[in-house]
Every structure is written in structure tokens, then in C-alpha cells.
Amino acid sequence: MNSSLPDIAVHGLLMEAGELVRNKRALEAVKLLRSRNKAVIAEPYGCFVFALAHEALGEHTKALQFYDLLFKSVPDHLDALLNAANIHRSLFNLDRALALAARAVAAHPNDARTYICQSQILSAQRRHVEALAAIDRAITIKPDALALTVRGSCLIEMGRLKEGLAAQREAASREPANAGVQTVGLFCANYDESLSAADLFSKYVAFAQRFESPLLKERKPWRNTRDPGRRLKIGYLSPDFRGHVVGKFIEPVLAHHDRRNFHITCLSTEAVTDEATKRMQRHVDQWRFLRPSDELAADGIRHDQIDILVDLAGHTAGSRLMIFARKPAPIQATWLGTGYTTGLTSIDYFLGSKQQTPPGCEIYFSEKPVHLPVIVPLAEPRPTPDVSLLPARANGYISFGCLSRIIRLNEGVIEVWAQILNAVPTSRLILDQLNFEEAATKENFLTLFARHGVGADRLVLRNSKPFWNSYHDIDIALDPFPHNAGTTTYDALWMGVPVISLRDRPSLGRFGDAILTPAGLSDWVTDTRQDYVARAVAASSDLETLQDLRAGMRARLRSSPLMDVAGFTRALEAAYRTMWIEWCGKAAA
Q1: Domain of 397: which CATH number?
Q2: How high is the mean pLDDT of the chain?
Q3: Structural domain of 41
Q4: Which of 220, 438, 551, 560 lies 20 to 30 Å from 87 when distance is taken between CA atoms?
């Protein structure tokens, strides 16, 4: 940006502050800028550096204030437009974000970044056809890894899974040293049905070797008191302490923790908060918003003397695994985020259940599996509608259904589901997803099923609001594979709908078993695709059993380990204590 600088001292200060921000010393930059606040704000570049510094500190509201101030004098500043748009996107202010991206595109039509930004916002609005057109424009200008990653994600959300995974693989191959691109590639590889368990694990190991290994030398000593029986400091680290599936499951556990024996800290990597955040904050002893710098965040955790640091994100958006790579706590574990290994040797334990990580699967985990009663307990959802009568009674035909994410619906799943529909000629399949609001996504799935002899008249593709109502129309739920569903399996059972699942790769292909078996429904879990089809066909002909299951499902769940939040939390705390005692013994030795 060109701007006249009336004060050479201010110019030097701004250069120094900009350098501090680039070196991840944003707090020092803010303090420096405030020393000449009025003079700094009078300069467009001063507003920009102020905005960058506050953004680096996670102070989004302040950053946006300075970007807006900058726009008054330089309305088309490219970096400011993109940064502000991305902040608004992270805060779910999507209309405002899109307006800023459109300004960036209009002012800088030959810069690929503007179309990438626009595409990501359009995808967040479920306008994937427009998002694909925008990202294709970016690729014609600069076909780099970021653009390919965004294109892959867009294709996946449209139901074009093979094309999307191919784009993600190409992106990962182009920039092997880009941790963000590699993390997205790892996350998507979990859904690739062509990969064996060994293939998948090797990708996680390769990630750790590239990104974790160089940080091993940065580890610093701990000052934690080695007392096996003292009150332990547990730190939960996540970007999702809000109205999110992780927030939904962690909140009741936080509420049940024994605070006399366990000091609980939540370490949030995102400044976005909502009503769920406020509830969680009341259940813990300490709440921290982590600095964007992994190194500084790790130093803060070490300073707080957290004894056991628990990752709740894995390789998902907003995760901060390189904090764990620096080993700021003597014991580290992963739980709940993706439900699979992180690949990091710095994380000691993987928290799951015996169905999720059966004996023999240890070779696919960098962490030591620990068995809890269930993966995670279910607190009674409220408010939800009452369980309905079996829809097949009124319809005269069976309705299968699935509300799981589109990325899980690969061609193998569609082939098996088509076999079920063809074996039960009068049946219907209901697929209920946000993405089906877009006609192009519906058409993609109709084409995929048509290849297996299933016509559009047998399919109901929709987006129900609220989604709970969809279960009133479903008799039997079908679980995808090799990556099983998780939350939607809990939801289906709560609404009285039994779920047919297929055991596949540990542990992502064992979610169904890990939920259904504790519910006393192990006979709904199968080991082969042939058995999966046969189980669906057999269940569809036994309406009495389906109605009895439906009517008694909530009572079944309430009396099962799945809804024993207090019992689960005691088991979790016992596992923490065992880990700690073992570490104290090793440290003493």
C-alpha cells in the first residue's frame, strides 16, 4: 500500500510492529503500536498492522474494527478484504463475508486468492455449484495446493467423492511441507474406501515424521509435582467448545467431573462463543483462549502445570496438534475429535472403547489404546419429539434411511444399499442432508443409484428442519462404511430407529459396534457386506420386532452404559489416575 508517512518515527515503529507480527509476537506489536496510538491510526498501514496483530491474538472483533477503519481510506486493500472476509466466515457472518469477497474479486480479478475466498464462503452457504465455478476460476489463474484442496472439499460436498478425494491427493502431493494441506488430506483419507487400515495408518506416520519430528528438540522440562494421589490438572484442548458435536458430548462430562480431585481447564483454540460455551465455562475451574502461536500456547500450558492434556480435535479444522508435539504436559491423550490416531508419538493414549479398538489393532495407533465403557456417553437430548409409531404400518412399505454426512456415502455404500432396495422391492431409501437443498447434489446421487438399478421413485433426498422429524419416516437406519456414523447413530436410536452397521477398519469403522453393542443391539452389527444386506432384508420383514424395538428404545438407552454419564466420567477419571500413577512411577525410576 502506498501512503504518505508524515513522521519518520511512526514509519519505523510500524515496520518494527509488522516484523513482530510476522514473528508471532503480536502482543508485543499491540503494546508498541499503542505507544503512539493516534499517530498509528492516522496511517492506513497502521490500521492494517493493528488489525493483523489483533487477528493473530484471536481478537476478531478488534481486528474487524481496524479493517473497517482501513477501508475508509483504502476500500480495495486486497489482504485486508480477504482477512476480514475470512474472519466473518469463521464467525458465521456469511453474507458479510461474501460481500467482502465480492469486493476483492471485483477489485483484483487476476488474483487467485479472491476466488478461493469466495468459493469457501459459498461452500459454507451450501451453494456448491457457484463455489465450484469460483474455485475453478482460481485454478485457471494459479493451480496451487490450496486451490486444489478447496476444490476437493467442494466436490465431496456435492457427492462427487472420487473426484474430490483425487483433488485432495493431488494437493497433498504438490505441497508435502504444507501442514494445513496435509491435515485436510489425512482427514479425507479416512473416508477413502480403497485404503486398508495399514495404508491409512502409514499416512499418519508420515505426517508425524515430517511435522512432529523437527519439534522434538523444542521440548522443555515440566515442573509438575510427582504426587500419585494429589488433585490432578486436566486440560481439554479443542476448537469446538460451542454448539458443535464435540461440545454436545463434552459438556455433560465436564458437568460430572469430580472437581475436588480434578482441576479442569478448557483450552479453546477459537474465540467463537455461544450459549453452549457459557454453560461449559460454568463447569470448569479455568478457561483459556490459546494464542495462535503453537510455541507460546505450549509454554502457557507448561506454565499452568497441566498434568494430563487431552486433544479433542485430532486432524480436524482448528486442531492444534503441533502444541502436543512440543509435549507441554507430561501425559497427553486424544479423544472424541476424529476417533482415530493422531500419528504423533508425543500423544501417549487413545481413549476409546473395546469395540472401537479391539485386540490386535494396536499396530494402527501411535498411542496406547485405553478402554472406557463407551466412546462417549449420551446426555438425554432436549428438546426432541416423541417417538412415532412404526411408519411401515401406515405406509405399507419399509423405509430405510441415513442422515450421515455425504462424505461417508461412497460408491461401495451405494452399491450395497442398492442391493438392499432391490431385494426389498417396495422399500424406499431416505437420505436427509443439508446438501440436498442443492439440485446438483441430488442429481449426482440419483445418477449413482441409477447405475445399480434403483430409480428416482425409490429415493427421497431432502433436508428436514428440524432433522429429528426425519426419523418419524424411517423404519431402519443404515450405517455407512468404512467410516461409520457416530452422532447420527445416537440420534437414530434415540428416535427409536434401529441401525444396521458393518464392522470395518479400526477405529473409524467400529463406531457402529461401539454404540450398538452397549445398547444391547450387537445382533444389528455385521462383519461382511453380504451379512449387512441379509440383516436388512430380514429386519424389513419383521414389523412386530421393529415396532417393539421402537417403542422401547429410549428405556433401553436410559438403562445402558450409553447414557450413564456419571459412570463414564468416573471411569474416565480412573483412567487419568492410572496414567498419572504410572508416570509418577516411571519418573521416580
Answers
A1: 3.40.50.2000
A2: 92
A3: 8-196
A4: 438
